[in-house]
TrEMBL record:
<comment type="pathway">
    <text>Cofactor biosynthesis; biotin biosynthesis; biotin from 7,8-diaminononanoate: step 2/2.</text>
</comment>
<keyword id="KW-0808">Transferase</keyword>
<keyword id="KW-0001">2Fe-2S</keyword>
<dbReference type="InterPro" id="IPR007197">
    <property type="entry name" value="rSAM"/>
</dbReference>
<feature type="domain" description="Radical SAM core">
    <location>
        <begin position="45"/>
        <end position="263"/>
    </location>
</feature>
<keyword id="KW-0411">Iron-sulfur</keyword>
<keyword id="KW-0004">4Fe-4S</keyword>
<comment type="similarity">
    <text>Belongs to the radical SAM superfamily. Biotin synthase family.</text>
</comment>
<feature type="binding site">
    <location>
        <position position="195"/>
    </location>
    <ligand>
        <name>[2Fe-2S] cluster</name>
    </ligand>
</feature>
<dbReference type="InterPro" id="IPR058240">
    <property type="entry name" value="rSAM_sf"/>
</dbReference>
<feature type="binding site">
    <location>
        <position position="60"/>
    </location>
    <ligand>
        <name>[4Fe-4S] cluster</name>
    </ligand>
</feature>
<comment type="function">
    <text>Catalyzes the conversion of dethiobiotin (DTB) to biotin by the insertion of a sulfur atom into dethiobiotin via a radical-based mechanism.</text>
</comment>
<protein>
    <recommendedName>
        <fullName>Biotin synthase</fullName>
        <ecNumber>2.8.1.6</ecNumber>
    </recommendedName>
</protein>
<dbReference type="GO" id="GO:0004076">
    <property type="term" value="F:biotin synthase activity"/>
</dbReference>
<dbReference type="InterPro" id="IPR013785">
    <property type="entry name" value="Aldolase_TIM"/>
</dbReference>
<dbReference type="InterPro" id="IPR006638">
    <property type="entry name" value="Elp3/MiaA/NifB-like_rSAM"/>
</dbReference>
<dbReference type="GO" id="GO:0051539">
    <property type="term" value="F:4 iron, 4 sulfur cluster binding"/>
</dbReference>
Length: 332
């Protein structure tokens, strides 16, 4: 337990036993510890706002049990073609004008085809020209594709590990947990920032949730962003009847993520529509400092902007300011 005393230490040697010890602390002690770590590295009253757009929806060949976009599930979601570049950039401008500082674009692919890469590059370049951070989630990538994204100026690449290595095959059979880690390593080596988290509420055990955090916190470099998603059960998917995670359990996970990855942005992602304002407030206190804005996350619902604005006002939270973010900039 002595290793837990210096909670803000940046390290990648966390163990499940340490994660479990943190998780099982008295609730007030855990939140106090996490909040102290959060204050050391971030303004506790600022929250970074991202917006997410599905640039290619449905028809994915993967069999992720939680996903409405899998062609193997029965969610009745028709497949679409890749959106036109100008359509994506028009939506990005709306997001920027609405307060988003990062624009995330997701495509329902196992991996992108080379014929689509030029359009993807133009989307990244256009988002950068708008002064926003850019993020893409396109599935697995080849080293050549990663270099093309890097040259286009991509800031972040999202590739969630979803759950623990033990439970992974219960959720997805069309790729391996090691495939996820390989993609993350390639992204990290390219110099693109990593965005990687997971989903809770898929029938996993609590140890799987902690193991997921340990997998992220023991990467050679912690992800710059760690989205923690609460499963949104979607009719027609194998997990449509999954039991929700208790709010206190979810807050504990946020706190453990903050302590183990002190400098990462911990994002409240999918599932906020089902969270009370009190649960969200506790998550922010425990170290969450990023959310998705906008009324849709790919194909799932998200809180209306007016509700977020009202919540932020009640809590005294400020959206993080937009920074100039250009291809030539060292940081953005």
């Amino acid at each position: 337990m002595n290793r837990l005393q210096n909670s803000s230490e940046i390290r990648n040697t966390w163990t499940r036993e340490e994660a479990e010890a943190l998780y099982n602390l008295p609730f007030n002690d855990l939140l106090f510890k996490a909040h102290c770590v959060h204050r050391e590295h971030f303004d506790p009253n600022e929250v970074q706002q991202s917006q997410l757009l599905s640039i290619k929806t449905g028809g994915c060949p993967e069999d992720c049990s939680y996903c409405s976009q899998s062609a193997r599930n029965n969610a009745d979601l028709p497949a679409s073609k890749l959106l036109e570049v100008q359509t994506v950039l028009a939506e990005a401008k709306k997001a920027r004008d609405g307060g988003a500082t990062r624009y995330c674009m997701g495509a329902a692919w196992r991996s992108p085809k080379d014929r689509d890469m030029r359009a993807i590059e133009m989307m990244v370049e256009g988002v950068k020209e708008l002064g926003m951070e850019s993020c893409m989630t396109l599935g697995m990538l080849t080293p050549e594709q990663i270099l093309r994204l890097k040259d286009a100026g991509l800031d972040y690449y999202n590739h969630n590990i979803d759950t623990s290595e033990r439970y992974y095959s219960e959720v997805i059979s069309t790729r391996k947990f090691s495939d996820r880690l390989e993609t993350l390593n390639l992204v990290k080596e390219s110099g693109i920032k990593v965005c990687s988290g997971g989903i809770v509420g898929m029938g996993e055990e609590n140890m799987d949730r902690l193991d997921m955090l340990v997998s992220l916190a023991t990467l050679e470099q912690h992800p710059d962003s760690v989205p923690i998603n609460m499963l949104i059960p979607i009719e027609g998917t194998p997990l449509q009847d999954a039991k929700p995670v208790e709010p206190i359990e979810f807050v504990r996970l946020i706190a453990v993520a903050r302590i183990m990855m002190p400098k990462s942005h911990v994002r409240l992602s999918a599932g906020r529509t089902e969270m009370s304002i009190e649960t969200q407030a506790m998550c922010f206190f425990a170290g969450a400092n990023s959310v998705f804005k906008g009324e849709t996350l790919l194909t799932a619902d998200n809180p209306e902007e007016s509700k977020d604005a009202h919540l932020f006002k009640r809590l005294g939270i400020r959206p993080m300011a937009l920074k100039s973010c250009t291809k030539e900039a060292e940081t953005c």
